[in-house]
Amino acid sequence: MSTLHRPTARTWLCATCWLAWPCETRRRQLLAHYDGAPASLALVLSAAMVEAAADLRGTPAGELHDQFVGWLPRYATISRHATAR
How sure is the predictor about 74, in pLDDT bands with cuts at 50, 70 and 90? Predict the structure, then answer.
């Protein structure tokens, strides 16, 4: 049994729990793995979103955004407010 919750080919469902990838478990894993590197995580997930868009042609762009990057913490907003002080 995989603990990495990988996406399945062409469906972008989690191979472990069969939820839309990245599932909640994989999201937590990714946040932990990329702790301190939010831009890198956003780039990795953006690349996955582009790949998924080719496989899931009938899925609206907004849904893909929400699934892949819409859930990410808003680090840029936090950083701007911290440096504005």
Answer: confident
